[in-house]
Amino acid sequence: MKQLLKIFVPVIVVALLMMLLATTMNRSEGYAGSNTLTIYNWGDYIDPSLITKFEEETGIKVIYQTFDSNEAMMTKIEQGGTTFDIAVPSDYAISKMKEENLLIPLDHSKLPNEKYLDPRFMDLSFDDNNKYSMPYFWGTLGIIYNKEMFPDKNFDTWNALFDPELKNQILLIDGAREVMGLGLNSLGYSLNDTNKAHLQAARDKLETMTPNVKAIVGDEIKLLMADNEAGVAVTFSGEAAEMLSENEDLEYVIPKDGSNLWFDNMVIPKTAKNVDGAHKFINFMLKPENAAINAEYVGYATPNAKAVKLLPKEISSDERFYPDMDELNNLEVYDNLGKRMLSYYNELFLEFKMYRK
Protein backbone atom coordinates (compact mmCIF):
# COMPACT_ATOMS: atom_id res chain seq x y z
CA MET A 1 0.00 0.00 0.00
CA LYS A 2 2.84 2.38 0.90
CA GLN A 3 4.45 1.64 -2.42
CA LEU A 4 1.20 2.48 -4.24
CA LEU A 5 0.91 5.74 -2.31
CA LYS A 6 4.49 6.63 -3.26
CA ILE A 7 3.57 6.13 -6.89
CA PHE A 8 0.14 7.80 -6.99
CA VAL A 9 0.67 10.84 -4.72
CA PRO A 10 3.24 12.47 -7.06
CA VAL A 11 1.00 11.65 -10.04
CA ILE A 12 -1.98 13.35 -8.35
CA VAL A 13 0.14 16.40 -7.41
CA VAL A 14 1.42 16.73 -10.99
CA ALA A 15 -2.11 16.40 -12.37
CA LEU A 16 -3.39 19.13 -10.05
CA LEU A 17 -0.52 21.41 -11.06
CA MET A 18 -1.27 20.75 -14.75
CA MET A 19 -4.94 21.64 -14.20
CA LEU A 20 -3.93 24.88 -12.46
CA LEU A 21 -1.54 25.75 -15.28
CA ALA A 22 -4.18 25.02 -17.93
CA THR A 23 -6.68 27.25 -16.14
CA THR A 24 -4.15 30.08 -15.96
CA MET A 25 -3.26 29.70 -19.63
CA ASN A 26 -6.90 29.63 -20.66
CA ARG A 27 -7.50 32.87 -18.80
CA SER A 28 -4.48 34.57 -20.36
CA GLU A 29 -5.49 33.30 -23.80
CA GLY A 30 -8.98 34.67 -23.52
CA TYR A 31 -11.04 32.01 -21.73
CA ALA A 32 -14.11 33.68 -20.29
CA GLY A 33 -16.94 32.65 -18.02
CA SER A 34 -19.94 34.37 -16.47
CA ASN A 35 -17.69 36.36 -14.14
CA THR A 36 -14.98 37.15 -16.70
CA LEU A 37 -15.03 39.25 -19.86
CA THR A 38 -12.27 39.09 -22.46
CA ILE A 39 -11.97 42.23 -24.61
CA TYR A 40 -9.93 42.40 -27.83
CA ASN A 41 -9.21 46.00 -28.84
CA TRP A 42 -6.67 48.27 -30.53
CA GLY A 43 -3.74 49.37 -28.37
CA ASP A 44 -4.28 52.39 -26.10
CA TYR A 45 -7.89 52.63 -27.26
CA ILE A 46 -9.75 52.90 -23.97
CA ASP A 47 -9.39 54.94 -20.79
CA PRO A 48 -8.11 52.35 -18.25
CA SER A 49 -10.25 53.95 -15.55
CA LEU A 50 -13.34 52.77 -17.44
CA ILE A 51 -12.27 49.13 -17.16
CA THR A 52 -11.88 49.55 -13.41
CA LYS A 53 -15.25 51.30 -13.22
CA PHE A 54 -16.97 48.52 -15.18
CA GLU A 55 -15.44 45.85 -12.94
CA GLU A 56 -16.57 47.69 -9.81
CA GLU A 57 -20.11 48.24 -11.11
CA THR A 58 -20.69 44.71 -12.41
CA GLY A 59 -18.34 42.45 -10.47
CA ILE A 60 -17.09 41.11 -13.82
CA LYS A 61 -13.32 40.70 -14.18
CA VAL A 62 -11.96 42.12 -17.46
CA ILE A 63 -9.11 40.51 -19.41
CA TYR A 64 -7.90 43.08 -21.94
CA GLN A 65 -5.87 42.10 -25.01
CA THR A 66 -4.81 44.20 -27.99
CA PHE A 67 -4.24 43.84 -31.73
CA ASP A 68 -2.54 46.10 -34.27
CA SER A 69 -4.55 45.34 -37.42
CA ASN A 70 -8.01 44.17 -38.42
CA GLU A 71 -6.44 41.29 -40.30
CA ALA A 72 -4.55 40.04 -37.22
CA MET A 73 -7.72 40.30 -35.14
CA MET A 74 -9.84 38.38 -37.67
CA THR A 75 -7.23 35.66 -38.08
CA LYS A 76 -7.14 34.98 -34.35
CA ILE A 77 -10.94 34.86 -34.10
CA GLU A 78 -11.18 32.63 -37.19
CA GLN A 79 -8.73 30.15 -35.68
CA GLY A 80 -11.09 29.76 -32.74
CA GLY A 81 -8.49 28.69 -30.20
CA THR A 82 -8.86 31.90 -28.26
CA THR A 83 -12.08 33.07 -26.64
CA PHE A 84 -13.03 36.74 -26.97
CA ASP A 85 -16.29 38.24 -25.73
CA ILE A 86 -15.85 41.70 -27.28
CA ALA A 87 -13.85 42.89 -30.30
CA VAL A 88 -13.57 46.33 -31.90
CA PRO A 89 -13.09 45.92 -35.68
CA SER A 90 -13.30 48.62 -38.33
CA ASP A 91 -16.17 49.03 -40.79
CA TYR A 92 -14.93 46.88 -43.70
CA ALA A 93 -13.74 44.19 -41.29
CA ILE A 94 -17.23 43.98 -39.77
CA SER A 95 -18.60 43.31 -43.25
CA LYS A 96 -16.06 40.52 -43.77
CA MET A 97 -16.74 39.01 -40.34
CA LYS A 98 -20.47 38.93 -41.12
CA GLU A 99 -19.79 37.11 -44.38
CA GLU A 100 -17.64 34.54 -42.60
CA ASN A 101 -20.19 33.98 -39.82
CA LEU A 102 -17.83 35.20 -37.09
CA LEU A 103 -20.31 37.41 -35.22
CA ILE A 104 -23.26 36.96 -32.85
CA PRO A 105 -26.28 39.23 -33.49
CA LEU A 106 -26.85 41.84 -30.78
CA ASP A 107 -29.84 41.76 -28.46
CA HIS A 108 -30.92 45.40 -28.67
CA SER A 109 -33.23 45.01 -25.67
CA LYS A 110 -30.06 44.78 -23.56
CA LEU A 111 -28.63 47.99 -25.02
CA PRO A 112 -30.94 50.81 -23.86
CA ASN A 113 -28.10 53.35 -24.08
CA GLU A 114 -27.97 53.05 -27.88
CA LYS A 115 -30.64 55.78 -27.87
CA TYR A 116 -27.83 58.27 -27.23
CA LEU A 117 -26.01 57.45 -30.49
CA ASP A 118 -26.05 59.96 -33.34
CA PRO A 119 -28.42 58.63 -36.06
CA ARG A 120 -25.89 59.73 -38.71
CA PHE A 121 -23.60 56.91 -37.56
CA MET A 122 -26.20 54.16 -37.38
CA ASP A 123 -27.54 51.74 -40.01
CA LEU A 124 -24.52 52.13 -42.29
CA SER A 125 -23.64 50.01 -45.31
CA PHE A 126 -21.30 47.65 -43.47
CA ASP A 127 -23.97 46.68 -40.88
CA ASP A 128 -27.63 47.26 -41.78
CA ASN A 129 -29.77 48.12 -38.76
CA ASN A 130 -26.71 47.59 -36.55
CA LYS A 131 -27.57 43.93 -36.31
CA TYR A 132 -24.04 43.00 -35.24
CA SER A 133 -22.27 46.16 -34.07
CA MET A 134 -22.45 49.36 -32.04
CA PRO A 135 -20.34 52.48 -32.87
CA TYR A 136 -17.28 53.03 -30.66
CA PHE A 137 -15.22 55.75 -32.38
CA TRP A 138 -15.17 57.43 -35.78
CA GLY A 139 -12.84 59.72 -37.62
CA THR A 140 -11.27 60.80 -40.88
CA LEU A 141 -8.09 60.45 -42.91
CA GLY A 142 -6.36 63.73 -43.70
CA ILE A 143 -3.19 65.77 -43.95
CA ILE A 144 -1.24 67.15 -41.02
CA TYR A 145 1.42 69.76 -41.77
CA ASN A 146 3.77 72.19 -40.07
CA LYS A 147 2.53 75.78 -40.45
CA GLU A 148 5.95 77.23 -39.61
CA MET A 149 7.70 75.21 -42.30
CA PHE A 150 5.03 75.96 -44.92
CA PRO A 151 3.34 79.25 -43.97
CA ASP A 152 2.17 80.01 -47.52
CA LYS A 153 1.06 76.54 -48.65
CA ASN A 154 -2.51 75.26 -48.78
CA PHE A 155 -3.02 71.56 -48.06
CA ASP A 156 -6.77 71.34 -48.63
CA THR A 157 -6.46 68.87 -51.54
CA TRP A 158 -4.49 65.66 -52.01
CA ASN A 159 -2.83 67.21 -55.05
CA ALA A 160 -0.91 69.51 -52.71
CA LEU A 161 1.24 66.50 -51.80
CA PHE A 162 2.64 66.32 -55.34
CA ASP A 163 4.27 69.78 -55.19
CA PRO A 164 8.04 69.45 -55.90
CA GLU A 165 8.70 71.92 -53.06
CA LEU A 166 7.84 69.11 -50.62
CA LYS A 167 10.85 66.99 -51.57
CA ASN A 168 11.70 64.50 -48.78
CA GLN A 169 9.09 66.07 -46.47
CA ILE A 170 6.10 63.69 -46.51
CA LEU A 171 5.35 60.77 -44.19
CA LEU A 172 2.78 58.30 -45.53
CA ILE A 173 0.78 55.90 -43.41
CA ASP A 174 1.65 52.28 -44.24
CA GLY A 175 -1.73 51.21 -45.59
CA ALA A 176 -2.79 50.15 -49.09
CA ARG A 177 -6.36 51.44 -48.85
CA GLU A 178 -5.22 54.79 -47.47
CA VAL A 179 -2.42 55.49 -49.95
CA MET A 180 -4.18 54.06 -53.00
CA GLY A 181 -7.29 55.90 -51.84
CA LEU A 182 -5.61 59.30 -51.81
CA GLY A 183 -4.26 58.56 -55.29
CA LEU A 184 -7.76 57.72 -56.50
CA ASN A 185 -9.34 60.76 -54.82
CA SER A 186 -6.70 63.06 -56.34
CA LEU A 187 -7.87 61.89 -59.78
CA GLY A 188 -11.54 62.35 -58.93
CA TYR A 189 -12.24 58.64 -58.41
CA SER A 190 -13.89 56.86 -55.48
CA LEU A 191 -11.57 55.35 -52.89
CA ASN A 192 -13.61 52.16 -53.36
CA ASP A 193 -12.97 52.11 -57.12
CA THR A 194 -12.55 48.64 -58.64
CA ASN A 195 -11.79 49.77 -62.20
CA LYS A 196 -8.28 48.44 -62.84
CA ALA A 197 -7.47 51.21 -65.32
CA HIS A 198 -8.32 53.79 -62.64
CA LEU A 199 -6.25 51.91 -60.07
CA GLN A 200 -3.26 51.75 -62.41
CA ALA A 201 -3.60 55.49 -63.06
CA ALA A 202 -3.63 56.14 -59.32
CA ARG A 203 -0.51 54.01 -58.85
CA ASP A 204 1.24 55.81 -61.70
CA LYS A 205 0.38 59.18 -60.21
CA LEU A 206 1.62 58.11 -56.77
CA GLU A 207 4.97 57.27 -58.33
CA THR A 208 5.39 60.94 -59.29
CA MET A 209 5.15 61.79 -55.59
CA THR A 210 8.01 59.51 -54.54
CA PRO A 211 10.70 62.27 -54.38
CA ASN A 212 8.55 63.96 -51.74
CA VAL A 213 8.10 60.85 -49.58
CA LYS A 214 10.49 60.75 -46.66
CA ALA A 215 9.14 57.46 -45.27
CA ILE A 216 6.18 55.10 -45.21
CA VAL A 217 5.61 54.31 -41.54
CA GLY A 218 3.09 53.54 -38.82
CA ASP A 219 2.95 54.95 -35.30
CA GLU A 220 6.31 56.66 -35.83
CA ILE A 221 4.45 59.46 -37.61
CA LYS A 222 3.36 60.91 -34.26
CA LEU A 223 6.87 61.28 -32.89
CA LEU A 224 8.43 62.43 -36.16
CA MET A 225 5.85 65.17 -36.73
CA ALA A 226 5.85 66.29 -33.09
CA ASP A 227 9.67 66.60 -33.25
CA ASN A 228 9.66 68.49 -36.59
CA GLU A 229 11.48 65.64 -38.34
CA ALA A 230 9.10 66.00 -41.29
CA GLY A 231 6.83 68.76 -42.52
CA VAL A 232 3.77 66.87 -43.80
CA ALA A 233 2.06 63.56 -43.10
CA VAL A 234 -1.02 61.58 -44.08
CA THR A 235 -2.68 60.31 -40.91
CA PHE A 236 -5.91 59.61 -39.07
CA SER A 237 -7.76 62.34 -37.18
CA GLY A 238 -7.23 60.86 -33.72
CA GLU A 239 -3.50 60.52 -34.29
CA ALA A 240 -3.50 64.10 -35.56
CA ALA A 241 -5.24 65.33 -32.40
CA GLU A 242 -2.47 63.80 -30.31
CA MET A 243 0.21 65.44 -32.49
CA LEU A 244 -1.46 68.84 -32.25
CA SER A 245 -1.35 68.62 -28.46
CA GLU A 246 2.40 67.97 -28.67
CA ASN A 247 3.30 70.62 -31.26
CA GLU A 248 1.36 73.87 -31.66
CA ASP A 249 2.91 74.49 -35.09
CA LEU A 250 0.92 71.62 -36.62
CA GLU A 251 -2.42 71.83 -38.43
CA TYR A 252 -4.82 69.10 -39.63
CA VAL A 253 -7.06 69.32 -42.70
CA ILE A 254 -9.49 67.01 -44.50
CA PRO A 255 -8.92 67.31 -48.27
CA LYS A 256 -11.83 68.77 -50.23
CA ASP A 257 -11.46 66.22 -53.01
CA GLY A 258 -12.68 63.42 -50.76
CA SER A 259 -11.29 61.11 -48.11
CA ASN A 260 -12.07 58.21 -45.80
CA LEU A 261 -14.70 58.34 -43.07
CA TRP A 262 -14.00 55.35 -40.84
CA PHE A 263 -15.76 53.64 -37.95
CA ASP A 264 -14.61 51.24 -35.26
CA ASN A 265 -17.54 49.36 -33.74
CA MET A 266 -18.01 46.97 -30.82
CA VAL A 267 -19.04 43.42 -31.78
CA ILE A 268 -19.54 40.06 -30.05
CA PRO A 269 -17.48 37.34 -31.79
CA LYS A 270 -18.73 33.78 -32.22
CA THR A 271 -16.08 32.74 -29.69
CA ALA A 272 -17.85 34.60 -26.86
CA LYS A 273 -18.52 32.67 -23.65
CA ASN A 274 -20.02 35.59 -21.73
CA VAL A 275 -22.59 37.04 -24.12
CA ASP A 276 -24.62 38.64 -21.32
CA GLY A 277 -21.48 40.31 -19.93
CA ALA A 278 -20.58 41.50 -23.44
CA HIS A 279 -23.93 43.27 -23.74
CA LYS A 280 -23.38 44.84 -20.32
CA PHE A 281 -20.00 46.18 -21.43
CA ILE A 282 -21.32 47.56 -24.72
CA ASN A 283 -24.19 49.29 -22.91
CA PHE A 284 -21.73 50.61 -20.31
CA MET A 285 -19.57 52.16 -23.05
CA LEU A 286 -22.66 53.72 -24.65
CA LYS A 287 -23.49 55.57 -21.45
CA PRO A 288 -22.85 59.25 -22.31
CA GLU A 289 -20.62 59.98 -19.30
CA ASN A 290 -18.40 56.99 -20.11
CA ALA A 291 -18.30 57.73 -23.84
CA ALA A 292 -17.21 61.31 -23.09
CA ILE A 293 -14.47 60.16 -20.71
CA ASN A 294 -13.23 57.73 -23.35
CA ALA A 295 -13.28 60.29 -26.18
CA GLU A 296 -11.33 62.83 -24.14
CA TYR A 297 -8.72 60.21 -23.21
CA VAL A 298 -8.28 58.58 -26.65
CA GLY A 299 -8.66 61.70 -28.82
CA TYR A 300 -10.97 60.25 -31.46
CA ALA A 301 -14.50 61.45 -32.14
CA THR A 302 -17.36 59.85 -30.24
CA PRO A 303 -20.51 58.79 -32.13
CA ASN A 304 -22.51 59.39 -28.94
CA ALA A 305 -24.57 62.57 -29.48
CA LYS A 306 -25.16 63.20 -25.78
CA ALA A 307 -21.51 62.51 -24.93
CA VAL A 308 -20.44 65.23 -27.40
CA LYS A 309 -22.40 67.73 -25.30
CA LEU A 310 -20.45 66.65 -22.20
CA LEU A 311 -17.05 67.26 -23.81
CA PRO A 312 -15.12 70.51 -23.29
CA LYS A 313 -16.25 73.10 -25.84
CA GLU A 314 -12.81 73.37 -27.40
CA ILE A 315 -13.08 69.68 -28.36
CA SER A 316 -16.71 69.38 -29.46
CA SER A 317 -16.64 72.59 -31.52
CA ASP A 318 -13.40 71.72 -33.35
CA GLU A 319 -14.53 71.07 -36.93
CA ARG A 320 -11.25 69.43 -37.80
CA PHE A 321 -12.36 66.46 -35.68
CA TYR A 322 -16.14 66.97 -35.59
CA PRO A 323 -16.79 68.16 -39.19
CA ASP A 324 -20.21 69.41 -40.26
CA MET A 325 -22.63 67.45 -42.46
CA ASP A 326 -21.49 69.11 -45.71
CA GLU A 327 -17.96 67.88 -45.14
CA LEU A 328 -19.09 64.43 -43.99
CA ASN A 329 -21.13 64.02 -47.17
CA ASN A 330 -17.91 64.32 -49.18
CA LEU A 331 -16.31 61.37 -47.37
CA GLU A 332 -16.56 57.64 -48.02
CA VAL A 333 -16.53 54.57 -45.81
CA TYR A 334 -14.26 51.78 -47.05
CA ASP A 335 -16.27 49.02 -48.74
CA ASN A 336 -15.40 45.37 -48.36
CA LEU A 337 -13.81 44.89 -51.79
CA GLY A 338 -13.41 41.12 -51.50
CA LYS A 339 -10.15 39.18 -51.23
CA ARG A 340 -9.25 39.34 -54.93
CA MET A 341 -9.65 43.12 -55.28
CA LEU A 342 -8.02 43.80 -51.92
CA SER A 343 -5.05 41.73 -53.06
CA TYR A 344 -4.86 43.88 -56.18
CA TYR A 345 -4.81 47.07 -54.07
CA ASN A 346 -2.02 45.53 -51.94
CA GLU A 347 -0.09 44.52 -55.04
CA LEU A 348 -0.19 48.05 -56.49
CA PHE A 349 0.75 49.55 -53.13
CA LEU A 350 3.72 47.18 -52.86
CA GLU A 351 4.82 48.19 -56.36
CA PHE A 352 4.67 51.82 -55.27
CA LYS A 353 6.79 51.11 -52.19
CA MET A 354 9.32 49.16 -54.24
CA TYR A 355 9.46 51.92 -56.87
CA ARG A 356 10.60 54.33 -54.15
CA LYS A 357 13.69 52.18 -53.58
UniProtKB/TrEMBL annotation:
The keyword Protein biosynthesis does not apply. The chain crosses the membrane at residues 7-25. It comes from the Bacteria. Keywords: Membrane, Periplasm, Signal, Transmembrane, Transmembrane helix, Transport. It is found in: Periplasm. One of its GO terms (cellular component) is periplasmic space. It holds the Pfam family SBP_bac_8. One of its GO terms (biological process) is polyamine transport. The keyword Membrane applies. One of its GO terms (molecular function) is polyamine binding. Spermidine binds at Y92. This is ABC transporter substrate-binding protein. It comes from Listeria cossartiae subsp. cayugensis.
